[in-house]
Amino acid sequence: MVPPKPHRNGESHEQTERSRTRDTPTNPIESDTSEWPGVEVESHDRGGREFTLDGREVGHVHRGRLIDIPFAKRIRDILIEEERAEKHHVYPDSGWVSYCVRSDEDIDGALWLLRISYLYHLIAMRKREKDHSAEDAVNIDAVLAELDLSDALEHVFSERRTVE
């Protein structure tokens, strides 16, 4: 599943953020993400909902539609180049990306990005810990294949899995 590219209507993230209502399509994002093994959903310190895996943030949603996701800068650069996400709305030079959900059609793109972050953190967890418990329920290779990653992202994940 390849996510749709984010909308580009000239509107800043801050303008989009102010124009939102509470009646937004974030429930599917929270519902799906909360079902991933090991993910916890909590209130985010700057508003919204935060998704964590073993205490590490996978991403968070502000006011329903602005999703911020941390990545290694290398992955962030690929996602920006492929126009799958935008630079973070506050910290554009960090590894973080932002993704605006403006309609139901954008939900798949948000979930795709969150899933990449989740799998990256899951690989790191498995390398650190001998006991993987619930996280063993995830077949990383199968999920990565379903995500239809670009060659550049596949290369990063391949390196991440083999580096000891």
UniProtKB/TrEMBL annotation:
It comes from the Archaea. Residues 8-23, 41-51 have a biased composition (Basic and acidic residues). Residues 55-117 form the Luciferase domain. Residues 1-51 are annotated as: Disordered. InterPro entries: Luciferase_dom. This is Luciferase domain-containing protein. It comes from Natrialba asiatica (strain ATCC 700177 / DSM 12278 / JCM 9576 / FERM P-10747 / NBRC 102637 / 172P1).
